[in-house]
Amino acid sequence: LTAEFGKSVTIHGFVPDIRDFLAHSAVLVVPLRVGGGMRLKLLDFFASGKAVVTTTIGAEGNLAKDSVHALIRDTADGFAEAVLQLLADSKLRTQLGTSSRELVMQHYSWQTIAKDFTRLYEWVLTNRDARPV
Questions:
Q1: What is the model's pLDDT at position 133?
Q2: Which has fewest Cβ within 10 Å: 79, 81, 82, 128?
Q3: What is the secondary structure of 4-68 as a DSSP string?
Q4: pTM beyond 0.85
Q5: Interatomic CA distance for residues 67 and 58, integer angstroms
Q6: Quick check: 32 and 56 in contact, CB under 8 A?
Q7: Integer Cα distance of 89 and 103 in angstroms
Q8: Which residues of 102-128 are buried (b: 16+ CB within 10 A; e: fewer)?
């Protein structure tokens, strides 16, 4: 499934590898209005170092902050304005892309997750005889 919207917007269905699309994108959008859990695709987008526009629901489940790691907008007009703002402002795109990549590397990298799990397992083993409060 591929749909063309004018000369600058193409919506693709399933793609086997997203990296080529990320490399050729100026702004990434996550316009979710419903959902649950952590948005792993958003973390993929952050890791790419690209600027992201999303909704509060789209950013749910991670540490992203509005105007620091992404532009978070919940109205159609606000969302569209944020996309246009990023397309027009390369400095802001770079700033958001850099800070969102740093967020992923600091909190969501495999190395960080492995350390967190190791600490959890060590705590459980050390406290296995402790009674829950």
A1: 63
A2: 128
A3: EETTTEEEE---S-THHHHHT-SEEEE--SS--S--HHHHHHHHTT-EEEE-HHHHTTS---BTT
A4: no
A5: 15
A6: no
A7: 21
A8: ebbeeebeeeeeeeeeeeeeeeeeeee
First vs last C-alpha separation in the chain? 53
* Pair of tokens at residue 96: 């958001």
Residue 79, token pair as written in the block: 């969302």
Angle at 69 between CA 63 and CA 75, to 5 degrees: 95
Residue with tokens 């316009």: 31
Contacts of 59 (CB under 8 A, 6+ apart): 30, 39, 42, 66, 70, 72
Overall residue count recorded for the chain in this entry: 133
Tokens encoding 57: 């629901």
